[in-house]
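Morning. Coffee machine broken again, so started the prediction first thing and wrote up yesterday's gels while waiting. Chain of 422 residues, entered below exactly as on the submission form.
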Amino acid sequence: MANFIDRRLNAKGKSTVNRQRFIERHKKQIKKAVSDAVTKRGVTDIDKGEQITIPTRDISEPTFHQGKGGIRERVHPGNDKFNRGDQIERPQGGGGQGSGQGDASNTGEGQDDFVFQISNDEYLELLFEDLELPNLQKTQLSKLVEYQTYRAGFTNDGVPANINIVRSLRSSLARRIAMTAGKKKQLAQLKQQLQELLETPGGNADTIKRLEDEIALLKKQIDKVPFIDTFDLRFNNYAKREVPTSQAVMFCLMDVSGSMDQATKEIAKRFYILLYLFLTRTYKNLEVVFIRHHTQAKEVDEHEFFYSQETGGTIVSSALKLMHEIQQKRYPESQWNIYAAQASDGDNWSDDSPHCKELLEKHILPTVRYYSYIEITKRPHQTLWAAYQSLQEQFNNIAVQHIREADDIYPVFKALFKKQTA
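Came back before lunch.
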């Protein structure tokens, strides 16, 4: 077996690079663990890091060894089954007495799975990868800021993957010239003196010996100058630049009526916390308006939206009316990208659902970039679901999704805000 050891010079932050390579290599398993963790956590712990378990068979290193093919001649003492020239079948894989890395054995020995802890930032980055606000367009004012990575010159510290070979060699050449130019000039003078003495009949042998020693010493000093040193290394530097795009507002409408039991409210809160983390992490200066409603709707702050215990009957149109009023007063569609996300159990006064459809059809959907509605229920859908579904046939900026249990939260969230391909 051959082992390859990377002894290249590395910066003090090399563990960060190795960590990112490991995450990239096992991203599929890590992302699955991250998505599973969303549904298992409480509301207050949804943004924390996660402990990932990866089977040892998936992190084994590749090895080089001699294969089983080829023509071989062997002597098997005590053989009474084969004669010279007989062909022996190739051994079947897995039938030997190898030292595998199974999870358990008949002797009680085994190897634990590899446990990998990811940080809060890594957790959120994997959680919201490939997500975006749909249909975002530039408006007259530029306040919403995204970040774009760009080249920012060179730096003396970095990771091996970012080494700039041309710049490093140029720096190495400049250093070697600076350190050896004087010695090379002196060496040339000594060589010329030695040549003149050698060409002169009866030259002084002691002087010749002294010049030869000085020349040898100078050559030795010049040869000691390293071809490349850590001082010479130059790394490509990358930085993040704020890229103004557009300003946007997200309206979050949540049903807190009596029909929404505690489990349903918990699912709705998890969905909105995911949405809030996604918006605040991905976009800068994006405004979020929180609206809670039962028979009446009111605008609340972030804390009251997630933790208030208020309850009552259900009139969904009250939230839509309040959203439209706020949008008209503070967020004109000519200057703002308007988004809305509504969560409900679908329970509503039967004569109010047509009114909701009318408000959406005439006032809200013509002004918003994207409207998402999730219905959290295990019961059959009611009139509100039918009203929203009918709007999907008329407008392409509304999405309707169904959540039955906590395991559906993250898949539905990804479906609603999946990054659009060009």
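The chain has three domains: 9-60+122-127, 165-233, 246-416. Going to sketch it on the whiteboard this afternoon.
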